[in-house]
Design brief:
Helix 7 (169-192) runs antiparallel to helix 8 and helix 15 runs antiparallel to helix 16. Strand 12, helix 12 and strand 13 (382-384) form a beta-alpha-beta unit. The chain has helices spanning 30-35, 63-70, 106-118, 128-135, 141-152, 156-166, 169-192, 204-233, 247-255, 298-312, 329-338, 358-368, 393-404, 407-411, 420-441, 446-464, 470-478, and strands at residues 8-11, 18-26, 38-40, 55-61, 76-86, 97-104, 122-123, 235-241, 273-279, 282-288, 316-322, 343-348, 382-384. It is built from 17 helices and 13 strands. The two termini are 14 Å apart. Bound molecules: guanosine-5'-triphosphate (GTP) and magnesium ion. The site of guanosine-5'-triphosphate has 24 residues, from helix 9.
Amino acid sequence: MGSLDDTICAVATPMGEGGVGIVRVSGTHALPVASSILRLRSGKSLEQIKPYKLSLGQFIWNPVQVGKISGIKTSSVLDEVLVVTMRAPRSYTGEDVVEIHAHGGPVIVNAICEALTQAGARLAEPGEFTKRGFLNGRLDLTQAEGVLDTIRANSLQSLKMAQEQLQGRLSRIIQDQRDRLLKLVAHLEAGMDFVEDDIQFIEHSELKNGIHLVLEEILKLVDSAEEGRMIREGIRTVIVGRPNVGKSSLLNAILGTNRAIVSHIPGTTRDVLEEAIMVEGVMIRLFDTAGLRETRDELENEGMSRATQAIDHADVLILAFDKSDSLNEKDVNFIERYTQKPCVMVLNKSDLPPKYSLKELQDIVIRTRKNSEGVPEEEKNYVEVSALTGEGIDRLKRSIKSLAVGRQYEAGDSVLVSRLRHKTLLHNAGAALQNALRAIDDTLSAECVALELRIALNSLGEIVGVITNEDILDQIFREFCIGK
Ligand SMILES: Nc1nc2c(ncn2[C@@H]2O[C@H](COP(=O)(O)OP(=O)(O)OP(=O)(O)O)[C@@H](O)[C@H]2O)c(=O)[nH]1
Ligand SMILES: [Mg+2]
């Protein structure tokens, strides 16, 4: 990515027709560069107007600058615009920034960018504004990622989580743990200089206590990562069951549309169908799959192999049963195979005379799973529904959501980690701290303990970006759009 000395510009709003199109300019020369293509109604230059206040003006097509391309020979007004300046360091990038609010048409915003580049700016790369904000200390790396997650949020809960990250809740926890560790390392390393005199700057018990406290916080964050990921990406929920139990009918009933083909012929569904719904602000990604049975039908077998792949990647399974058809050996096998993941047991066709009760199914599940370490049985994980009449469908939706996303987060008192990058680095930090504790127990030298603490410190530093390199930054900012 280009140097910080350049003045950059880009269209900040999506390309296409709209009420407004915003072009952003940032850098040391942002004001003079933008001034040269604008004429303000007040007659003032951008340097003279009050920052953070909108001013009315015109975008002037200056033939000296861009006439070569357009063929227009005389100076002409191409749009009426509103302009705002933000002065360094009190701007998103930490530099002087100008925003030009024009009408939202691709020709207008592109012409403004073209004129700006003729006047000395350069087109920004994806994420370059945010990267400058990071390099100028306006936000740390987790906050920059929070910006991206805010833009990409697919549900209200994922937006809330992204905003918490942007506001620095995760950063603060990480920084607090780094500060604690830095103090411990400082004591430890001070003691290393006086090892001959047998002077200890920190007692073993105090050192261990301190490490335990940090480790506890880190493990809490690692534990939250699954839930965080599901809130960010949506809960992958796969409907599984024997043919004809009503899986596709369930998908349709949950969506409230006629999305999947339904028929009385077993083996109707072949491809995996995906649709999304929102439940209490969380996105549920629903997958309908082919019914599972033994068959020689080539296409059906392909469907089942796709179903199996979907099951492998699922966060939650909806195990669908037909309550109007007796349970048999196959259902028991089925339960054995698929209840290792969090699942909601759905007894469909509750509008028809039942062949067994919910309690009977529950007993089979408990018997089948007694030696497994699956998710504990809970009443709420069993739902009787009728895909035909819609009875029980709302309860089913809430069950899926509450199985994946805990109440703790919704109560607003815990911070969730949602990115694999953070989880991996936290995991590394935790492992180093555990090594440090072992080194103390094995009475290894202070150097060994300090080394592990330094590894943990580096991992935590990488999360917030205190420690970083160009590759990591490029990887993170590449994900952004141009103009952000
Ligand atoms: N009475 C009643 N019939 C239902 C209900 N749900 C589904 N059916 C019927 O059951 C039959 C099978 O439904 P599907 O939704 O195609 O079943 P499926 O599990 O997707 O079947 P495959 O795709 O073949 O695996 C159809 O005739 C549906 O109309 C229900 O709640 N009540
Ligand atoms: Mg089907």
